[in-house]
Design a protein that fits this description.
seven-stranded mixed sheet, alpha/beta, Rossmann fold, single chain, 212 residues, 12 strands, globular
């Protein structure tokens, strides 16, 4: 399995550290040719406008869309979630792949960044130890840095996590995953392993479809 990490700006190195730790080969993606042969792509957190403009400058937007349309899994964290969205309330370049609307800087400026535990039922299948109450997975430590917010989801989108106040902070649709927080800035690799499971499911779906 070969995972690509978009490496134009932002926390791409941190994703690489986790992928290496769990034994998954990865490649930093800066040019269209770097997308060839990938099984999945991670779009990291950072500055979404800058990442979008650089992706357009380096002719990456169309090939990244094509990768998703080929059935390859794509995960966007924070700024990456903005790029995945169909709507983001700004004129910045978007991939427009996932049926979500995202509000940029929804919680305020850098000083308003925060951390909070998140209940994520989708992590149960990974076989992690249960939380203190013995039911379900332990909470995931969410790191929110100038974070966006998933303000609406389409009918085909599964909500994976909400804040205690109800705001959606993680969702998936087919082979696409969006988290508005930064799993790569923690020592918890469960979201990365969830993404690997999604890649395996997508590979199976594409293989099955080839016999139709």
């Amino acid at each position: 399995m070969q995972i690509g990490v978009l490496a134009l700006q932002g926390a791409f190195r941190e994703h690489g550290v986790i992928l290496r730790r769990i034994g998954v080969a990865h490649r930093e993606v800066r040019l269209p040719g770097h997308l060839r042969g990938l099984d999945g792509l991670i779009i990291p957190g950072g500055e979404s406008t800058t990442i979008g403009k650089l992706a357009r400058e380096y002719s990456l937007l169309r090939p990244m869309r094509a990768l998703a349309h080929e059935g390859k899994a794509v995960w966007g964290t924070c700024a990456g979630a903005i790029l995945l969205a169909k709507q983001a309330g700004s004129r910045q370049p978007l991939l427009g792949l996932m049926d979500i609307a995202v509000q940029r800087n929804a919680f305020g400026r850098q000083l308003d960044s925060f951390e909070t535990p998140l209940e994520v039922g989708a992590l149960t299948a990974l076989g992690e130890a249960s939380g203190a109450n013995g039911s379900g997975p332990r909470p995931f430590h969410g790191v929110f840095i100038r974070a966006p917010l998933i303000s609406s989801v389409g009918s085909g989108v599964e909500v994976l996590a909400r804040l205690p106040t109800g705001e959606v902070v993680a969702a998936r649709q087919d082979g696409m995953l969006a988290t508005v927080f930064h799993p790569e800035l923690t020592d918890d690799d469960r979201f990365h392993r969830l993404f690997l499971d999604m890649i395996a499911l997508q590979r199976g779906a594409v293989t099955a479809g080839s016999y139709d």
